[in-house]
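Protocol step 4 of 6: structure prediction from sequence.
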Amino acid sequence: MKQVAYGSAGLLTLALLAACSAGDRSGSEPDGAAMAGRVAQGPPVSFSPQDKAANVPTDQPVIVAAQAGRLTSVRVDGGKSGPLPGVLSADGTRWRSTAAARPNTAYTVTAVSAGSAGKQSETTSTFTTVKGDKTFDIKTITPNKDDTGLTVGIGMPVMIAFDQPIVDRVSIERNLTVRSSKPVEGAWHWFDSQHVDFRPQKYWPAHTKVRVEARLAGVRGGPGMYGKRDVKLDFKIGRAQITKGSTDEHVLTVRRDGKKIRTMPMSAGQGGQWKYYTTSGIHLAMSREPVTVMTSPGIGPGQAGYYRLTVYNTVRISNSGEYVHSAPWSVGSQGSANVSHGCVNISPDNAAWFIKNTLIGDPIIITGSPRKLEPTNGWGHWQENWKQWLKWSSLKDGPTITF
């Protein structure tokens, strides 16, 4: 650890003190050489990790503390890996890094401190981090500009998919931050080792701005595996629109910001076979497709019941082939009977209106069917109650950071 005092005035003072005390060291006056040492060193500074430490975990924070006086600046330089950001305490006595270090990196910590008389001195310390054999990255993050747009419905989850299986889930969650313009209670939830999603306890408040910060560069994801980069996502919640439909009453009702804005006759799955029931539950609008080619599930060409149809103005609500879509062939049954193979049929005029007025992430709630939507069938996130959702969260729930 190297320490250098700033300014020539201090050197002159040292020389004078040494000259005055050279003849007699037996008195009660302070020893000149001892004082010279204290002035040259300046206020003592401590470092964690300690000087010349090796194999330091990337998630171990760098802490610099002034044992006397205060810190005026701290820099943690990782060469090609760049500097580590950090924050200084309000009283200026303690600095702490706010991001993970990079593996396979030598860092130099430079701290400038000042004593009560304003004298400044610079102290340096070095450490090296653990070796990393491989990296992981975020493969996709949803919502996004291309797939969903950046204005989404009140039910929209944040969905992160990784390109490698994650072992250290706690480390990942600690470095995922959700900020919002309105306070929201929410939590992350692991569906498997490569997918972690965030949703609020209740629907997002309308017109909320949201920022997701995945500060994963250098974060440990498993033995010898560290995050490749940081990712930031900004999106916003639109108006509060919820659509409800009943397979018993054969009607869809759309409410926006609490007010009914449209009622549409519908026909749902005819049943008979399990796959021909429309699922009951809280669906989310997953995509809006002007044209969709639909084929019979599990049945090939030439087999009984096979079909291949070109369908217009479709809104997808699950991964098991369910859509709200235009069905001119069933208009006569819409409002009175269920005749579809599992989709929600509405008239061409209503379908054109619905696709235009639906945001990705809008809740579409279907009731009356014996077949329940599974939480993993598409975006069935709201099928789990809050206790069930938290079961698969490493850090449990907490408020978002408002901005």
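Step 5 (inspection) to follow. Residues 2-40 have pLDDT under 50 and may be disordered.
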